[in-house]
Amino acid sequence: MSSERSQDEPRVVTASREIEAPAEVIFELIADPRRQPGWDGNDNLAEVVHGERIHAVGDVFSMRLTNGKVRDNHVVTFEEGRRVAWRPASEGQDPAGHEWGWEVEPLEEGRSRVTHVYDWSELTDESRLARARGTTAEHLRASLDRLSEVARG
User: Which residue in 33, 35, 27, 78 sits closest to 55, CA to CA?
Assistant: First the structure.
C-alpha cells in the first residue's frame, strides 16, 4: 500500500471488553508507567525510564521499548479514574502524531468496561506508517486481556 493517505483508510482503532475488577484498580495499572510492561499485550514495553504515576495533562513519562529505543509519552487527556491518553515521541522530540488512549467505565458488582483506542489520524512520520497500519483491534484486545489478568490478580 502506498504511504499516501487513503481517504477511506481507518485511522482510529478501538477494542473494548468487560473486566472483573473495580475501575480504580484498572485505572491505577494504566496510569502507572511502572506497571505498563506487565500488561502490554504487544510485548513492546521493557521498562519505565523516567516518570511517575500520571496525574494530569502535560505529564511526560519515558519508556524503554523491547528494541532498546526510548519513547517520551506526552499525556494529552486525563480524567482521574476514567480516561487517559498519551502521544509518543522519539526521545527528546515532539510527538509523532499518534495517540494511545484508555477509557474505564465502572459497572455493577466491581466490574468495569475498558476501551483501548489507537488513533493515528495525525501521524505523518513515513517511518511509522506501516506499523500504525498493522495495529489492529486484535492487538489492542491483547493488552485488554493481559490487563484483565493483572487486575484480577
Answer: 78
Residue 3 lies in a domain: no
Tens digit of each residue's pLDDT, the chain (153 residues): 344 445 567 899 999 999 999 999 999 999 999 999 999 998 899 999 999 999 999 999 999 999 999 999 999 999 999 999 999 999 999 999 999 999 999 999 999 999 999 999 999 888 889 999 999 999 999 999 999 999 998
Helices (H), ranges, 8-65: 23-31
In contact, 37 and 14? CB cutoff 8 Å? no
Q: Is residue 5 part of a domain?
A: no
This model's pTM is above 0.85: yes
